[in-house]
Amino acid sequence: MIDPMRNRPRGAFVIAAVVLMLGYTAAAQVPAYRAPRTPDGKPNLNGIWQALNTANWDLLEHAARPALAMVLGPAGPIPAQAVVPFGAVGAVPGGIGVVEGGEIPYQAWAAAKKKENADHWLTSDPEIKCYLPGVPRATYLPFPFQIVQSAKGILMTYEFAGAARIINMGKPTEAETDSWMGWSNGHWDGDTLVVDVTGLNDRTWFDRAGDFHSEALHVIERYTPRSADTLLYEATIEDPKVFTRPWKISMPLYRRIEGNARLVEFNCVEFVEELMYGQFRKK
Amino acid sequence: MTHRLTMAFSATAILSCVPLAAQTPAPKTTPAKTAAAKTGKAWTAPRTPDGHPDLQGVWSYITATPLETPGGLGNSLLRQEEADNPVGNYNQQFYDARPATPKDRPPSQVIDPPDGHLPPLTAAGLKRQAAYAEKVLRPAQGPEDRPLFERCLVGFNTGPPIVPGGYNQHLQIFETPGTVALYTEMIHSTRVVPMDGRPHGTVRQWNGDPRGHWEGDTLVVDSTNFTEQGTGTLMLPVPMDEHLHLTERYSLLDDKTLLYQYTVDDPTVWTKPWSAQLYMTRADEQLYEYACHEGNYAMPGILAGARLDENKSAGK
Lengths: 283, 316
Hints:
heterodimer, A: alpha+beta, 9-stranded mixed β-barrel, 11 strands, globular, disordered N terminus, B: alpha+beta, 10-stranded antiparallel sheet, 5 helices, 10 strands, 16% helix
């Protein structure tokens, strides 16, 4: 269910919520498709995948806006001086949103915190410092990622910051401590790869709109083949410290079908040295 | 496990203090014998579904075998820096315990030249080494003065090539038809190696541009297109440059042993190619996240300290 229902009557929200609670998933709405198999008989998810949406800007439906950073001008918001030279290149694209029901169910204090995050985005978003993006954000950053799937293990390696996750497909193990990319236990549910992610720290965000979570975050991801070159990606998000109920995002992922497709290093640590350490340079 | 976990989540800190000098020189012994040669019967590697040797799993590259036999080039710069700046070091809790080198294995990782010493540097290589030393030994003017691994751009033992040292010395290999992935725990470094025969690209990368193929039961990874700044190798006397052509060979000797051999051909730095090898051992471990950059409190500390010293000297 990619199209949010923001403009539908309130009743639709309730129904959507109830459906979510009952455990129905958007996977049920995907036309039956049987994915090619790996030699051990599992759906073959190997390949380079990428989201084509603006979820990293804002999980919710949002209009385009003039610039990355805005300030209050004499007649309303205007681009901040530092980004004025970028013109249309520096503008932010709009998007239709990826949250089922079109609402992120923040607790009251958390809604205020999200707004504060958004207001101080330029100094607060961990993406700006090239920090590991966490889950689910790694999936829909505007960079490809690669699934390396064998019978003995699954590696998900992301172009952004060289982030990586190993999906444990054996007996589930518990996270021994928190980390940026979390602790991933996977299993197959029919043709769907289900990844249960815990052990995430509280330092990553969901998007550039300030959407955030605590270290109690629990993400249940579902990767379902829906055609030869697309997957349906769904993530159910639970965090009782921040939200009033579980909520869910969903989006298609597209295969990078170029014959010579590959990940190209994006070692952004180097790119942010001036930002992070420039103040300490010898003058 | 608890010990390993501590390692994985420790901040970068002063990596330059890894005590190369503490490596115990091993005595000269007889040449290497493979497990097969030792037992006198051929051992066949298990296969992946597409018929290739199955190298998958977690491998430890912890070793007590020094890079060189005594008297080699080594990384004298490290020892110099440690002597000049006795600021202390990680305690032994940090370092992987290293088993002794079995007597039937070479006394050094370097096997060619046969004396176990790295070959001499070229004139340009010596100049590069001197320039590198000047940068590293002076109060850091900016992050670029510090080694690549202190900047969290590469891991200090991940290479390529993998040259052991310190901690988090684990490699996990994934094999699929057409692709092999080499994932090192140190600084979560992934190399996705195309096995489909495509030619090298032209983009220079920190980890180079790897291409793989099978030679018999050996996985061969051929890498070019490294950057001018070098790779993640703390233990070498000089960072290699963009002319590096690296050939790595991964061979299963038995279920528990992966022989890792490599040849470094970097004619602007070394007077001749050289080769080394390691015996990796299968590890019953899961890899942890080593978030280097996210915990790099050392870099602002080093730089701010250098500025503080300058201000003090200037009487400010």
